[in-house]
Structures are given as structure tokens and as C-alpha cells.
Amino acid sequence: MLLFFAGIALALAGFFLCGWTRTWAWFRVVALNPPFADLRTVQGALISLAQGFDPRVLNPGDPWGRAMNYPMVWVKLARVFHLANENNYLWFVSCYAVAYLVCVCDLLRKTASFWVLAAFFSSASLLALERGNNDLVVFALLYVAAMCPVLWFAGIAILAGTALKIYPLFASISLLKNRLVFGVLVFASIILLALNFRDVLGVKSVTPVGAAGFYGTPSIAIAIQTITRISVSPLMIGALLLILAGTLSASKALKRYCEMENPEEWEVRLFLTGAGVYAGTFLFSSNYDYRLIFVILCIPYMAHLSDKWVRRFVLSQVIVSSNLDICMKLLGRPIGLLLTMASKIILFVFVSAFLMRELSRLFPEFSTCERTRHEAQGVQA
Fold it and tell me: What's the CA gap between 274 and 177, in Å, rounded?
């Protein structure tokens, strides 16, 4: 906690004394001016709409001319909070950045984990803060949903996140323990997405796809094509990785070396939330690295791995995958890129295997291992 607050105090002092760009350079983050650059596409959308442009196609109001790749609900929020005003804009983004900090602080208070601290100060997390990316507000919503004992309220928080960014729908698996809440949430989310189907397609069409600084099966496909000139379908890559994760989940090795030592219920729900977002976004889209902040939610659960070497290996993948800039600085651009991409893949396989194991516990009727164990108990009885 002392290191966490010391880092924040250092950053705040730097902003006041040395300025935005120079302070972020201390943390190895390339800053853009004006501050909080990502949501500027929404602020600029207000200007573009007034000029008669569709900001998802042409967004001259953005300082860098970027198309807006967020649902149109963000434009409505921008109007409600008068984000065209610079002071309002800075306060708005600062508030949800502080919400992210509060969530991480609470997680540190509960876990006292240096892994959580290292993940917070990773390149991906700091870049999300510097850009003022709205993944931060979704992180806060999903953290509250995972920690909230009232599942109906948790479902509302996830639904709100889905309205803002679509992908939080994957976090709904954290509510599977209550089938009614889960079913209502999924149904409401499907209705929401159906009503905004064109908006969803518009967001997908303008979302960048890349290899460096991205994760996901489309990013892997681009990397393979760049290196080997061979075109591989992202669906094939996803299928192969899921088969690998399923094999690991069903293997005796997972039971022997990856057994969890009594995680608490809130840690399991937090894991299901973070793992659902990471695995879902990995399979279906190309994502900027700052979305790796959701893997922070998986750390308390994975810290219960019984074998210390497996535990250190898996948790180290969280740190390596989130520090592309540092890896490229230390190892050079090609090796750094390959190392972080391999780390993201390894992390996906382990997280998916753990996720499959937790889901099999929620649905023992579909689990061969669980069914065999119950039958054996019945014979003994």
C-alpha cells in the first residue's frame, strides 16, 4: 500500500511540477497532448455531429482525426456532462480514473499482493490511465459487480458495462451460480445489443486490428502473416487454443500442479469476471494491451495455486504480457514483441483452463470427473 500511494504521489507531484508529458516519460509511457487522448474521440464527435459528419466514419473534431470506435451512448453522455467544455472533460475522465485507482487500492488492501502492485504499475495499466481510456470505468463497474453480495445489483452493473463497451457481457459468467439472475442479464444484454445492432457493427468496423500492442486471435493471425506470409484464420487459432486449454483442464497435470488452495468466494467471482473478459475478448476481437487490466482481477484466485513454481510462472505471464514497452527496451523490438505475444497466449491457455474447471464445478452434470466422483461416493454409501 505504501508503494502504491508513493507511486501515485510521485505522479501527481510530477504533473504539477514537470508537466504531463515529462512525468509519464518517467514511467516509460509515451504521452499524448492534450491529456486523456482516448476519450477525445467522443469529445470531438460532438463537433463532428454539429458539422453533419458521422464520427464513426469521419471525425474532424478529434485532435488526431480518429474515428470514434465507441457506442453512441458515449455521445449522449458527452452531451449530458457537457464534455465539450475542457474543464468538464478533465473532471469527468479524472473521476473514472480515480474509480480505477480506488478499486486497485481495495484489492491491494484485501490481498497485500506484490503481483497486483506490479500489474498496476505495468505499461498496459499506466497507458490506460494516461490515455484516460473508458475501459477504466468498465473495470470499476465489473469490480463492484464481482464484490457485491447482491447479485441483482451486480447484474445491473454488468448490464451498464455492456451498454458502454459491449464486451462486459463476457463477465456475466460470474453470475452463473444464480441461474435466474444470469438468464435475465443475458436476455437483457441480447435485447440491448439487438436494439443497437448497427451501432455494434459500426464500432467493430472502425476498431483497429494490429499485432504490436494488441492481443487476440486476429492479432496473432496478423503476426503470423507478417512473419511467414501465411494467412491463418483467427477462428482456427481460437479453436486450437481452446482445444489446448481443454486438454490442460482435463489433464491429471492440472490436478496435480494447478490445484487451488481454498480460494474465497469473492476471489472466485473476481476471477470469473476477469477471466471471462480476457478469454472472450481474446477469442473474438483484437484489443489494445491496456485491456489487460482485467487480468488483474484474476490474480487473487491464481495466487492460490498450490505448486509455487507453477504459481510464479502463471503470475509472471500477467506481468510480462502487460509490459511490452519494457520488454522491447530490454530485449529489442522483435524479441520483445514475440515474448509478450507468447506470454499473452500462455496466459490465455492457463486462464481458460482454470475457467473451464470452475465452470465444470458450477455444472457438475456436464463434468466427467465430477460425475465419476459422485458415483464413487454413492457406491461407498
Answer: 16
